Predict the structure.
Amino acid sequence: MRFYEHESKTLFAKHGMPLGKSGLARSADAARSIAAEIGGPVVLKSQVLSGGRMKAGAVKFADTPDEAARLFDEILPIVVNGQHAESILVEEKSPIAQEYYVGVTWDGRRKLPVVIFSDMGGIDIEEVAETHPEHVSKTHFSTLLPVTARVAKEAIGATGVSGNDLNRMTPIVHELIRVFLEYDLTLAEINPLVRLEDGRFVVLDGHVDMEAEARGSHAALLDEIGIQSEETRQARPPTDFEIAGAKVDASDHRGVAGNVVGFDGNLGLVIGAGGGSLTLFDAVRKHGGKPANYCEIGGNPSVKKACALTKLVLGKPGVEKIAVMMNVVSNTRVDIVARGVIKGCIESGRDPADTIAIFRIPGAWEDEGFKILKKYGVEYCDRSVSMYEAAGRAVAKMQAS
Amino acid sequence: MSILINADATFIIQGITGREAVNLTRENLDYGAKIVGGVTPGRAGRDVYGVPVFDCVRDITAKSHVDGSVVCVPPKFTRDAVFEALENGIKLIVIVTERIPRREVAQMVELAALRGARIIGPNCLGLISPGEAKMGGIGGPAANTRTAYSKGPVGVMSRSGGMTTEIANTLTAAGLGQSTAVSIGGDAIIGTSYAELMPLFEADPETRAIAIYSEPGGRMEAELADWVRDNDSRLPIVAFMAGRFMDEMPGMRFGHAGTIVEGKADTTADKIERMRAAGISVAERIEEIPALLRERLGETS
């Protein structure tokens, strides 16, 4: 879950990291008064959950409060990689002598956190890593030992930085590492960390990502920063269909009906589990089918949950039929899913036999499940029909109808 | 032969009195597992299908030899349970629990390395050496497990629990049994990756080929490709790659927590290219796996 720049900076400030004077503006008037209070030139930065703001023209400099107000109106409507801004950060403009990059993230291969440091900050760090590897250091550290300042010192020193710069940056990088671990972040990044002309260091831009699974453990911080529990902070804002999907999943603690995402097609998908859904979605597309949605059912969902998901998918405009498919299941009960989807069809005023293009869930309690499906005239198949073939049958029915 | 577990392996179940754990205990016992005890704090003296319940892991390890533990406690308590198992000398820990933050997974993995132990998972269904024993919910009830899994020469590794069984079932239907199948877990950080299981399969005389399920996110396929190349592996590998549609949707999150496409991370197309370059066959569909394996086995045998 990504934080906006101003939220990341609130967190950084809480931990004593050096920041320029700033304020968050939600109107042109607010931008004017913040700029007046700062006094002197300011930078206006659109608050979106995406990089590439500068390129999109969503970061601009103002010399006067009136110019700040004018630029607010200019920047706010700019859409950056599909992200609409609701606020703009107005910050004092700093006289920069040098830019550095600091990032802390997880290395899944080494299974350790790693701090990445570069004395060539401000630009795309992946590019610097390719073109100037000697200017990028990667320093892994333990999650069991207390994090001491030497990790930060080594990370900075590895790029050849020494003297006052090393000693002044070490506590900042050290604190970033501590923040990363303390709040279960998946990324804590300062880009750039800058040395001002007077030798001081300031965090000019930065952002953090918190692990979704850890939100519950950090409720106090999220509350303090003002992040609401329903905010998903995905790469794009959730649609009404997706919000309704999340509600279906949360309505009942049994099993999973997760990751409901809308697409443009006409074939509704009630599919699972995690890997099975990826496989089946590919299969439907490979056969030329047009999925209306993605989803992942898993665990052992109740009849109620399977029914609610079916109704949601059938209620999506343009959905003609649904395909109910999973890999061979271990703990999902086939009969319960069968009951749920049939109930969902009936409650949507549709005939299950006509609406369910195919039912392919082999595994536990399949005999009971198949009996129910047979009773309602629904086409089903067992494990002798592959996932790919089942998807093909569903698509063929769509094309025939 | 097999890897990680065989018919003689003894193990315990932590969180044994939970609803899912009770089912899992039953399914494992029915498949022939030697479960020497279960742990739920405050529930000592009870039993689950005849398996005695204790408050602490130590209460079991003091009396019996314990090879492994299946951990199915809620996410909040998982790290503590795993630390307890590790500090009491258990060397194979299967973590079924999902939604554990990365920091805690990293801590468990780091301690396991210090103690010379191995973690499988988290967010996995466990492992099975068909005809011998299974640890975890893999395959479901014993009767279903016997339908899907059979003994034979193919080692199976999968980031998806469900797809482990789908692949094994396809192999079984084609007359190809499995030596050991491991659901390695779908999270961004897991105890044991494909590449880390390879030396075990390599050393197992019964294993003659490998089938893997793979998906977008992470660098595990790259790591496997490197391992195969660096170690001149004797084992032919066939991989199935799911989630190809995700290449068209950077930034979206589907599938497991580890399946996040962002920036310059490997796309499925990158992964397929890396694996092919290392001599790994990549199947378009699950049902192509048996024929590809036979072809590769024919080449090498």
About this structure: DSSP finds 15 helices and 15 strands in chain A. The mean pLDDT of chain A is 93. Residues 99 and 194 of chain A are 5 Å apart (CA to CA). Residues 163-182 of chain A form the longest helix (20 residues).
